[in-house]
Amino acid sequence: MENPAFNRAIRSFVLRQGHLSPAQQRAIDEGMPKWGIEYQAAPLDLQQAFGRAAPKILEIGFGMGGATAEIAAGNPDKDYLGIEVHSPGVGNLFKLIDEQNLSNLRLIRHDAVEVLDNMLPDGSLDGVHIFFPDPWHKKRHNKRRLIQAPLVEKLVRKLKPGGYIHAATDWEDYAIQIMEVFSANAELANSADGYAPRPDYRPLTKFEARGIRLGHGVWDVIFTRK
C-alpha cells in the first residue's frame, strides 16, 4: 500500500495488479454480484449492504484475504467490509467467502481513501483493521506509508464513540510511527499501556508465527475513539 506525500492527493495503495489467474477472475465475476460493492461517490447504507443491524468493521488492505476470512468466520455476530485494490487478493477472498459460506463479509475493490471520503457516513463504523501495511522501510520512502495523520483523521470521523482502530506491523520503526500518529490524535485513547497484546480475533499468520520463532517482533496498536 502507498500513501504519497500529503501535498498531493492521499491514496492508500500502489497499483500492483499482479497476475490474475483464471480461477481468481472467475471468482471476481461470480463474487461481485453476491458479495461485492461497486464504488460510487454516494453514501453507502451499511445495514442494507449486509441485510442486518450488527457491528460494522472496516479492513483496509486485506492482501490475499486469508486472515480476513478467518476473522469473519470466527465472529459471525459482526459484519466486515474489506477494501483492497489488488485484484488477485480480491478474487482469492471471494473464493474463500464462497467455500466457507461467509455471509458477514463484503468487498470493495477501490482506493480506500475515496471510499472513506465518499461512501462511508461519519460515525458508521465500530472498528477499523489495518494489518501489516507496506512498511516502506527505506527512510526516504517513509512518507509513503499509509498510516499518517491525515488518514487517521478521516478514520476517526467514521468511528462511533467507543469504536476502535487496530493496526499491526512487524516493522518496529513503523510501530513507533503508528503509536506516535495515534497518540497525537486528540479524539483517540490508547486501549493498552503502550503496545497491545494480540487480540484473539486477529489470527496468527504462518508468516508471523515463523517470524516469532526467529525472534522477530510484531506490534499491535489499538486505540479507541473517545
TrEMBL record:
S-adenosyl-L-methionine binds at residues 59, 84, 111, 134. It catalyses: guanosine(46) in tRNA + S-adenosyl-L-methionine = N(7)-methylguanosine(46) in tRNA + S-adenosyl-L-homocysteine. One of its GO terms (molecular function) is tRNA (guanine(46)-N7)-methyltransferase activity. It comes from the Bacteria. CDD domains: AdoMet_MTases. Pathway: tRNA modification; N(7)-methylguanine-tRNA biosynthesis. HAMAP family: tRNA_methyltr_TrmB. This is tRNA (guanine-N(7)-)-methyltransferase. It comes from Vogesella indigofera. The lineage of its organism: Bacteria, Pseudomonadati, Pseudomonadota, Betaproteobacteria, Neisseriales.
